Amino acid sequence: MIRNLHTDPHCYKTRKVWNSQALANGDKWRYELAAGQTVGGVFCWSPLDTSDLAGHVLFARLLSGVQAVFDNLHIEYGTTIAKRGSWIAATIANNVSGSIMIRTVNGPFVLENVGIYTPSDWDKIHDLYTAGILPYPWIEGEYLPLGGGYTSRADSNGRCNTSL
Q: How far is CA 66 from the centre of its chain?
């Protein structure tokens, strides 16, 4: 059983920003540095704060036409445990007191998906993904649907089925 603890994993709601701005981009939001700023970021997992995120694995998937966004993709105060192309996962230590964000200094991006998982749930997701059982992107659609609180498990044929 796998549970995404974020209630807006498809990022339809705007996130809090620091020295950045959010611009409507279809049903999502495009984030970029505010005019005149040299540093800034997006609190991708808001409305949850650092105390809610500590001890969990954070996941984010971005879209951008700027390769530097992906080359320098990092979750502030996180230890990266997996990173491929447009997505990243990082663990957040229990003693973190800073603001957890993704910086906007490398170019604009659209926040496509986020996840907050217990370490054991992340291990299940990553194992199913690397074994070819759980297709990417697992955060959306029939495999791990919207709403936080849905669960997923592989059946005896290796296919993922969802249930409440």
A: 18
Taking the C-alpha atoms of residue 68 and residue 75, their distance in angstroms, rounded to an integer, is: 15
What is the tens place of the pLDDT at every residue in 56-106? 999 999 999 999 999 999 999 999 999 999 999 999 999 998 899 999 999
DSSP track, 28-78: EEEEEEPTT-S--EEETTTTS-HHHHTTSEEEEEEE-S-HHHHHT---TTE
pLDDT exceeds 80 at position 129? yes
Burial of residue 140, with CB atoms counted within 10 A of its CB: 0-12 exposed, 13-18 middle, 19 or more buried: middle
Within a 10 A sphere around the Cβ of 38, how many other Cβ atoms? 7
Distance from C-alpha of 119 to C-alpha of 93, rounded to nearest angstrom: 11
